[in-house]
């Protein structure tokens, strides 16, 4: 009996302590970090911000609902912000904007998680039409918000001003602030500071990391995310993923009437307590099929989904419309010179050449993707298996890694030293004296981004008799090629010894040079 009393007393004490802790509303500090800034908050501004913090905590029930929602979506938001190079601190803005309600609509007709108007949404490659409204999709809208904020910071070089520009637009922020805060890393917050930023600081304090630690749920609920291709329906997907159709409709309000149109990929989310991981492909992962038994090299793999193209691909040849491997990029609509192309997209020629590791005089090739910002020092994947016909430059473009970084990581300098099957490091530097592994390629990938030069002594293969699985002879004069992930018209034209213009003419491809994965292209034998 005494033991039971002690247990009850302990539980009551724990609940009492927890309630006491929760009741301790976080206080606004005199100095705090935000992004890469140090904020010094004077007493009057602290009192003003604290009033908003207190208001957010006034109803424990409503606060917990928002916190639970935030905890559910937070990993996706943080991931998209990291990928875009945006400080994770800005994630609290989504609570301020919509309370993480997917179909929230403002009085000015801004919609969704991040409260985009249609025109602004389209600027950052968020699809809005009768079939799909990606403003209500946590993945696409968070990616768009990250791009929007990043664009502002390139203009203002200050994350406080960039955040305020989210509310008042770049033009409004420019008129309001001028260059007053450009490059400034210590900011004083006082009674004259913009109300929108002070409101944001209240959300950062109210929902900050310490509060998250205190209120974090210990259950196993999480947000599952899968890529799906249409056409399909939420009804069919509900059966596939063993969740209710009603739940999918509630979590995926970006669809129209539960229908997912042709194309994709689209991002489907649902809450699950199942610890099985889902591929960011179409099917759930099957542990029974994940064994590497029978593979010639279970340690290495080639990522055939690169380069990753996202955004408004119908305007891929225009600047600020697409991203290539999460970097700003553009697709060349026609073969031209570097200076002509650079002028067209609004970048200095030398900068364009440096960002794409091009030699002076090399031509810009139709159908190729080029970067309009610096490539990274490492790729998103660890290794790449060299395929026949690839060059160091084509691999660097494929993954968005600097050519110099690729060479340095692998201690290799010349294309002549590349061999099919070589396993190149894309993240870590190879140790001095360490040989580059070479694996056997049983079915060589044909996804190649060819540099603007002809391979030396490269024998031509007969496209009609090639054993590649993505091509077949349709008759004695023509054959069919199925577009694989990452392929371009230029790469395909080189593969078959034809011109890009011929490919476009044979397949009625418009001036934008847009092709899609799985598309069947007719190729006439030269």
TrEMBL record:
Residues 281-322, 452-480 are annotated as: Disordered. The keyword rRNA-binding does not apply. It comes from the Bacteria. PANTHER family: LYSM DOMAIN-CONTAINING GPI-ANCHORED PROTEIN 2 (PTHR33734), MEMBRANE-BOUND LYTIC MUREIN TRANSGLYCOSYLASE D (PTHR33734:SF22). Transmembrane segments: none annotated. Keywords: Signal. Residues 382-426, 479-523 form the LysM domain. Residues 1-23 form the signal peptide. The keyword Signal applies. The lineage of its organism: Bacteria, Pseudomonadati, Bacteroidota, Cytophagia, Cytophagales. Gene3D superfamilies: 1.10.530.10, LysM domain. It comes from Algoriphagus marincola. CDD domains: LysM (cd00118), MltD-like (cd16894). Residues 288-322, 454-480 have a biased composition (Polar residues). This is LysM peptidoglycan-binding domain-containing protein. InterPro entries: LysM (IPR018392), LysM_dom_sf (IPR036779), Lysozyme-like_dom_sf (IPR023346), Transglycosylase_SLT_dom_1 (IPR008258).
